[in-house]
Amino acid sequence: MAVVRTHSASALGRWEPSLAHTFLPGCRQCGERHPLAFKVKPADLDHCPGCGAEVAPPGQTVKVPAKGGLVIWLANAMQAIARALHRLAERI
Hints:
By secondary structure, the chain is an alpha+beta fold. It has one domain (18-91). The protein is 24% helix and 11% strand. It has 1 helix and 2 strands. It has one helix at residues 70-91; strands at 18-22, 61-65. It is elongated, with a radius of gyration of 23 Å.
């Protein structure tokens, strides 16, 4: 009978939270929000829900990583502990 060793590598790596900002331009004719900015998306994402004019495409997405803080330090410490436990389990 063969013994198959399995393990989960989900705790390996580095946890870095980040926030993504995407500029969504409003309608130039009526000032309505961009269709992608609505919580419940309209059926037509290419035209303004207010006046029906063509909407501009979404702008560039900028990803801003979070810096410092106790929560991030704690998350990285927990991942370091998980890596050490994972290595210990591999040796056993």
